[in-house]
Design brief:
The chain is an all-alpha fold. The chain has one domain (about 60-295): MetI-like (MetI-like fold, Orthogonal Bundle), CATH 1.10.3720.10. The protein is about 75% helix and about 0% strand. The protein has helices spanning about 5-35, 40-45, 55-65, 70-100, 105-115, 125-135, 140-145, 150-165, 170-175, 180-190, 195-210, 215-220, 230-245, 250-260, 265-295. Helix 4 (about 70-100) packs across helix 8 and helix 8 (about 150-165) packs parallel to helix 15 (about 265-295).
């Protein structure tokens, strides 16, 4: 039987959670409604929860500009899938040994991983290395490897989970039963680390899906545009619209082109196209995400 204070606390907690949920949902509703609003009506009346003049002109423009949106979606899905799987493999295989107390120079190796969170080589040296040494410019590897394939924070978070969430007694029992270190890692540690794996997978997947910077830096419009992800393609389209807007007074052709572009509503449509996959996938891994981030951050 709950006390009166517990009931009051529960009610207040529910109200706060409802307010927080509304603060997250309302912008998405406005975003979706604006993307289906006629451009002139959107400029004249502002954002409304219900479109004042319903129109699919923004989506028609996005899919009919000559840019392959469907291809960009395919690249994004491929990039996110390959990048997430590869990152999870590398992250777990580095974090597990760091979590084992018998690893020689464990403290030094952990410090070296942590050190990369404080300093990096900078954009110019990184670009020169990837372009002139590894020759990945204008290839799929250019959007897969730089900056996103492994993250020190994810490694340390996974290491913390292996230390706190996987009892060492179970690992020792597997060793006594004759299991090798690799078999113990695959058959014992990884199944018990599903929450943190789902959490890191979500972090990495969102990072790959939302990344446009690598495409802009390492892919040129002539040699690597076929590897544009959906975010990079939408960013490029936004840049083109901004260029027309800034030069409309000087170029008559820009003025004519801009008059046919639903500039306000198309921005909303682009945002919807970019965020929909994340909204669809997140509910399926939410429980593991919450559990993983909670347990993984208990101890260092």
């Amino acid at each position: 039987m709950r006390t009166r204070e517990e009931k009051i606390f529960q009610i207040i907690g529910n109200i706060i959670m409802m307010i927080g949920a509304l603060m997250a949902i309302i912008p998405l509703i406005l975003l979706l409604s604006s993307s289906f609003t006629d451009n002139a009506a959107l400029i004249r009346n502002g954002y409304r929860f219900i479109p004042t003049v319903f129109s699919t002109e923004a989506y028609s423009y996005v899919f009919s500009t000559g840019n392959s949106v469907l291809r960009a979606y395919g690249v994004s899905f491929l990039l996110t899938a390959v990048g997430t799987v590869a990152s999870l493999i590398i992250t777990t295989m580095l974090a597990y040994p760091l979590a084992r107390s018998g690893l020689p120079f464990r403290g030094v190796l952990t410090f070296l991983v942590f050190f990369t969170m404080l300093f990096n080589g900078g954009l110019v040296p990184t670009y020169i290395n990837y372009s002139n040494v590894f020759h990945i410019k204008n290839t799929f590897w250019a959007i897969l490897i730089p900056s996103l394939l492994m993250n020190a924070y994810n490694v340390l978070l996974t290491k913390s989970y292996f230390v706190t969430g996987v009892p060492s007694e179970i690992l020792e029992a597997a060793s006594i039963d004759g299991a090798s270190e690799f078999k113990t890692f695959v058959a014992v540690a990884l199944p018990m680390a599903k929450p943190i794996i789902a959490t890191i997978g979500l972090f990495v997947g969102i990072a790959y899906w939302n990344d446009w910077n690598n495409s802009i830096v390492y892919l040129t419009s002539t040699g690597g545009s076929q590897w544009y992800s959906i975010q990079a393609l939408l960013y490029q389209m936004m840049q083109n619209i901004s260029y027309l807007s800034q030069n409309a007074q000087n170029l008559s052709t820009a003025q004519e082109g801009l008059s046919t572009i639903p500039a306000a509503s198309v921005r909303m449509a682009m945002a919807v196209l970019g965020v929909i996959p994340i909204i669809v996938i997140y509910p399926f891994i939410q429980n593991n995400f919450v559990k993983g981030i909670t347990l993984g951050g208990v101890k260092g």
